[in-house]
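note to self: the first set is below, dont mix up w the second
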Amino acid sequence: MLRQVQLRWSGHLVRMEDKRLPKRLFYGDVTEGARRQGGQKRPYKNTLKKSLKQLQIDTATWEDLAQDRLAWRRSVKTGSAIYEANRIVAAKTKRAARKSPALLDQYSQCPGLSNMPAMSTHLPHGNPPCRTSSDAMQQQSDNSNLYV
């Protein structure tokens, strides 16, 4: 949402008259002054360029696109929707990869008989208790219902 607001404001700046102060500040560069000591804050133009790339808007021609207000708003809105959908899919994939193999790997390396229930031998700061593969599968199916 912040990305959309930033890009809509940038489009507004492009369409402003040249004599307006916000546009002059946006296109002007600081010629005097010292930079702060330590890590530098990211300038607005750098975050703007990053946002344009994330929303798949060409950084070389974005100002021409922003001249047409309706086309600019449409491209920002569709780019944001695509970016958000991709972000959600990536997060779900990452979450699924983090949840399923780790649980199976943790218990598959434990020695034990498959027909014998596991006894809890969990000690603080020690290894996790070993369980049979059927217990691990049962726990995985129980946990999968909690996070959906």
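second set (the one i keep forgetting abt)
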Amino acid sequence: MLQKELMDTTDAERKRQIKILIQRMDNKEREEKKKQLKELKDKEEKEMRKQAVKDGKKPFYCMALLYWNI
């Protein structure tokens, strides 16, 4: 929809605004995907740790991992 408006518009200022809006939407979508991926990885890691504790292994906590959110 915005792409079509971008092509149809002749006003330079309006084109600039539309380009900025499209870029903002793309960035937001990319960041949302990145956030979902991180949440999924965190959830999987938490499940692995739970399973390891159930299997009788001691929990492993590394301060560097906690500090840097790895």
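remember for set 2: The chain has one domain: 1-55.
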